[in-house]
Specification:
two-stranded antiparallel ribbon, 304 residues, 33% helix, metallocarboxypeptidase activity, hydrolase, alpha/beta
């Protein structure tokens, strides 16, 4: 499979005018204020709502929020849930919100809970993987990051000064990865894309530096109760990466600048849901995201 992208020239990386041309084609398609920010603020009775930054993408401005345990206690382990690093991945945002709304109060008896529901609100509104500068926030979690979304999230977590034991980062893999985002990436970087695999179902990406296979297995087993797990392809791979165990592959999240590599937490995972599958619904995708967080936290609790 190959696909030419309408911006740029084959095998030549984009210049500034290409990125400007790309940006001019983007349009707001849904409301962060109505669909996300309002839900965050509605949780103020259950969790502390903290604004940790602001993005000014003229003419659009976005406030960035964290939801945080009201009963914060330094002796408790801290857990982090992130969504919307890729703003277009809808169930990641709404899965983080659903966990915060329906389950965070229970788990804050055992943990200090932090939820960053939508790290990339411009991406949410325009249904984009990148920010307006054609930068992927989920390849930008490192010092002096070029993505303000990533930089502000890291700065906020650092200000809390806590040791995070677990980080679950909520994502999707969609049909638009092939129709738009993979071709755009290849065009931007002047390369050819050779991976067109989109797994049909839910899977996890663990961290090669701390894979924690038992932890990943516990999450997969929990998620399997609410939504299908993606089978490996004929090469025993998912998205071109060898399967470590059923429903799990591993990336070096730190080297790649992934959100799951932003802390020193020993237990980290990135979820991937396929919302375009025949058996998928918006609700069971959200349910899968919530189940992943619950599976992760229950595993840690059961460690004693």
């Amino acid at each position: 499979m190959s696909q030419l992208y309408p911006i740029g020239e084959a095998n030549i990386p984009w210049q500034a005018h290409h990125k400007k041309q790309w940006l001019e084609q983007q349009q707001v398609k849904r409301s962060y204020t109505d669909e996300v920010e309002s839900q965050i603020k509605a949780l103020s009775d259950q969790l502390d709502v903290e604004q940790y930054g602001r993005l000014d993408y003229n003419p659009h401005q976005y406030s960035l929020y964290a939801l945080k345990s009201k009963q914060w206690q330094d002796h408790k382990p801290t857990v982090l849930v992130t969504g919307g690093v890729h703003g277009y991945e809808t169930s990641g945002v709404h899965g983080a919100l659903a966990f915060a709304k329906h389950h965070a109060q229970y788990y804050q008896r055992f943990f200090n809970v932090i939820v960053l529901p939508c790290i990339s609100p411009w991406g949410y509104e325009t249904i984009n993987r990148w920010n307006p500068n054609a930068i992927d926030p989920n390849r930008s979690f490192y010092q002096d990051s070029p993505a303000e979304e990533s930089r502000l999230a890291m700065a906020y977590i650092n200000t809390l000064g806590c040791d995070i034991v677990c980080h679950v980062d909520l994502h999707e893999t969609t049909d638009t990865d092939n129709s738009e985002f993979r071709p755009a990436l290849a065009a931007r970087d002047g390369k050819q894309n050779h991976n067109w695999n989109i797994p049909d179902g839910f899977y996890l990406v663990g961290h090669t530096q701390k894979p924690q296979p038992a932890f990943q297995k516990a999450i997969i087993e929990k998620v399997a109760t609410v939504t299908p797990i993606a089978p490996a392809d004929e090469s025993n791979q998912l998205i071109g990466v060898p399967v470590e165990q059923f429903g799990v592959i591993n990336y070096d999240g730190t080297t790649l600048g992934l959100c799951m590599g932003m802390t020193s937490a020993p237990y980290v995972t990135t979820t991937e849901v396929y919302p375009d599958g025949a058996s998928a619904t918006p609700q069971n995708c959200i349910d899968g995201q919530v189940a992943a967080v619950i599976g992760a936290l229950d595993y840690i609790l059961n460690l004693g």
